[in-house]
Design brief:
This protein is an alpha+beta fold. The radius of gyration is 15 Å and the shape is globular.
Length: 150
């Protein structure tokens, strides 16, 4: 691979539930607001667990215990200008208190009521799998394939 070829970004994310709420990160980019499971990019030399713990501390001031890998999926737009490999883990928050930060894209993190979750714009769109997991406690497929947009 030459220096000019794009690289695959590895993003870890956490599915964190507390009572009837799910932890989500709100982003705004290009005039659009949307939600993501909290997390971020893995840095060189960092384990997936370390990356997820660091990202949750940076985004939400939240200590977590990382659980099992739930899903993998690729986010690749039709023009292939970027490629993100998403790894979604189950995690437990060690407290309720959030100390959110606001950055250029990240608008903050929030404990969102589960009843509001189906109507939100979530990227990558894993709402169907999350809701099925919450309903049954089972994972139907680990690799969700390629997801881009809704």
């Amino acid at each position: 691979m030459s220096e000019k070829e794009p690289k695959i970004r590895i993003r870890v994310a956490a599915l964190i539930l507390r009572e009837d709420r799910i932890l989500l990160a709100e982003h705004e980019k290009g005039g659009r607001r949307y939600w993501l499971l909290p997390g971020g990019g893995v840095e060189f030399g960092e384990s997936l667990e370390e990356a997820l713990q660091r990202e949750l501390m940076e985004e939400a001031g939240l200590e977590i215990e990382v659980g099992d890998l739930l899903w993998t999926l690729d986010s690749i737009p039709p023009d292939k200008h970027r490629h993100v490999l998403n790894l979604i883990f189950r995690a437990e928050a060690l407290s309720d208190q959030l100390i959110p930060v606001q950055e250029k894209v990240l608008q903050g993190v929030k404990w969102m009521p589960l009843e509001d979750f189906p109507s939100l714009t979530l990227y990558p769109n894993t709402k169907k799998e999350i809701l099925a997991y919450l309903d049954s406690g089972r994972i139907e497929a680990i690799n969700l394939g390629v997801r881009w947009g809704d």
